[in-house]
Amino acid sequence: MALHQSWFTEAVDRTGTAFSLKLGEKLHEEQTPYQKIEIYRTETFGHLMVIDGCTMVSTRDNFLYHEMMAHPALNSHPNPKTVAIIGGGDCGTLREVLKHATVKRAVQVEIDERVTRLAEHYFPELCSANPDPRATLHFGDGIRWMREAKPGSLDLIIVDSTDPVGPAEGLFGRKFYLDCLRALHRNGLLVQQSESPLLHLDLIRDMHRAMREAGFAQARLLHFPQPIYPSGWWSATLAQKTRGTLASRLNPATLARLKTGYYNAQTHRAAFALPNFVKTALKNS
Amino acid sequence: MALHQSWFTEAVDRTGTAFSLKLGEKLHEEQTPYQKIEIYRTETFGHLMVIDGCTMVSTRDNFLYHEMMAHPALNSHPNPKTVAIIGGGDCGTLREVLKHATVKRAVQVEIDERVTRLAEHYFPELCSANPDPRATLHFGDGIRWMREAKPGSLDLIIVDSTDPVGPAEGLFGRKFYLDCLRALHRNGLLVQQSESPLLHLDLIRDMHRAMREAGFAQARLLHFPQPIYPSGWWSATLAQKTRGTLASRLNPATLARLKTGYYNAQTHRAAFALPNFVKTALKNS
Asked: Distance (Å) from the C-alpha of residue A61 to the closest C-alpha of chain B?
């Protein structure tokens, strides 16, 4: 069966999988200095942003990814005050971060300002926290920004990037992790999107190894559904600067104030529950 | 972008989503009295069985579904001895059920014998437990079988069916649930695949309501990844005949003997951790 112009399809040759959303129409297309961005109106998922042919964010299901990139890490740190988001230009992760009262300052370092400008237009709900006085939108190279960050100045680094090809490639390597480690304060955490547990276990294993080689004490996987990404099943990796059990600030009163669609104390714990095949694959990484 | 003959695509107009796997070739196609069955060799997911255009089972990711249809329910019952599987013709759920030493008898009631015969040929690993003396393969109408089942004769009913259209439609209604309830012994459980938590919440709500209207004391959702099904995120509903907390037979020694890829004590608990939006939708169902 062939899908024609009325569907947007992301087909990934390497994984042999494709995901499609029914359109709607193309609302915007541009080539920036970094990448090609398209915006579609879909029939059932709201707006869709596509970067270099890959589905990035949809109105309907982005809450899964954005919440799970922010809250498990923030609630695993004893007192997260300063947060840097590398990438994350659609501002959805920033919005989730700013839901935490402990956070005094959050900077989003996105290389491509056009991602943010288009998000402001087509995903205004994701940008609703941008005027927050605690937020800074910085447009520039995240790798360089991290290299120049003040040592010990960050409690949490969230790497909310595209796949490890093109501009994001350097965000998945030992050199970048060394810079992150230096920028992190005591108890500091790094969380990074780490692709599909089913399709990209090799990448996850390599990331965890690179994080430990850079000096992180521990790297833990968390996983969650994300329908518009390959396999519909996605992960993030949470790396700790120092040894010891992660904090688990799952205070019922605080959580009750957190307006979330997916995240709660139960799904926090569930995200860290690893399937046997993942445990086995990561055991000797 | 159009996907041509080198991909198999399941496009669902109603949900506005499509999933595709790269082929490979078509290995088999037949029209049975009940449905059209196709078998493909895919490039990265092994063999794929398609029924009436819907992806049913792939070599690579069926362990997720089959394990989660069997083990959470079996380990939620204090002593499951007799099990009936309605549908489940590929025999993967039966194989998982027979991994439990408590089970003395398991009958699989599949309407279409051709599903099983093709599974034996193209998914032999799923049929490896079929010669087990505790197993019975019965080919016939599951609705009728349940109507005629001896009252109180079953500890667990697993409804492992296709979507609620065509031959499986009657498996999602109050009348069928009444028959299940009568066939269940004290402490009896019914578990049924209940589609995607993101795409089919209305169906899930209707199912839970019908189960309670039939007299089940409680219906609980569990969820897990399933890449080849719409949205890549799937669920099952576990209904209890009698009130009270579910058993949680997560004995470490027993679990260590259970050879599974996804399921373990942690993913058992994780499966029952419901996202906020699901809790809200089911609250008043």
From this structure: 8
Nearest to B15 among A44, A225, A261 (CB): A44
For residues B245 and B262, give the distance between their C-alpha atoms in angstroms, rounded to a whole number: 24
pLDDT for B256 equals: 86
Contact B98, B63 (CB under 8 A): no
**Does A1 score more than 50 pLDDT?**
no
Task: Give the domains, in start order, of chain B with CATH numbers.
Answer: 7-58 (2.30.140.10), 62-243+250-283 (3.40.50.150)
Kindly report, residue by residue over B171-187, the tens digit of the pLDDT.
Answer: 989 999 999 999 999 99
B62: nearest CA partner in chain A:
A198
Q: Do A2 and B2 touch (CB under 8 A)?
A: yes
Q: Which helix (H) or strand (E) holds B156?
A: strand B154-160
Mean pLDDT of B19-26: 96
Tens of pLDDT along A94-147?
A: 999 999 999 999 999 999 999 999 999 999 999 999 999 999 999 999 999 999
Q: A160 - beta bridge partners? A: A87
Burial profile A246-274: b = 16 or more Cβ within 10 angstroms, e = fewer: beebeeeeebeebebbbbbebbbbbbbbb
The separation between the first and the last C-alpha atoms of chain A, rounded to the nearest angstrom, is 41
Residue A109 in contact with residue A85, Cβ under 8 Å? yes
**A22: nearest CB among B8, B16, B276:** B16
Length of chain B: 285
- Which residue is it, tokens 């009270």? B244
Within an 8 Å CB–CB cutoff, is residue A283 touching chain B?
no
pLDDT band at residue A285 under the 50/70/90 scheme? low
- Which residues in chain A are contacts of B269 at CB distance < 8 A? 269-270, 273
CB A232 within 8 A of CB B198: no
Residues B97, B84: Cα–Cα separation, whole Å: 10
- Chain A contacts in chain B segment 15-34 (CB below 8 A): 15-22
How high is the pLDDT of residue A284? 65
| Residue A146 confidence (pLDDT) | 98
Measured CA to CA, the distance from residue A253 to residue B274 in angstroms comes to 18
Q: Is the model's pLDDT at A283 over the cut of 60?
A: yes
B158 φ, ψ to 5°?
-115, 115
Tell me, what's the pLDDT at A4? Answer: 60
